[in-house]
Amino acid sequence: MAEFRGTSYARAVREWEPLDWWRLEARALHHLPSVRRSLAAFAPPGAWRDLPKDAAPAWGCL
């Protein structure tokens, strides 16, 4: 079974901060662009800045 993007991120984080939860959601929902786009409207901008380019395409709200 392939590992999801969110799983590897969750295993790598040692100390969780509020933005880490948003980053985890963005990675976990990678395969559901419509849900990610909806989430982006509520997420702080910092949650998207360090994501790989393929994890968060350049949408106007991000």
From TrEMBL:
Instruction: Quote the protein name from its UniProt record.
Output: Uncharacterized protein
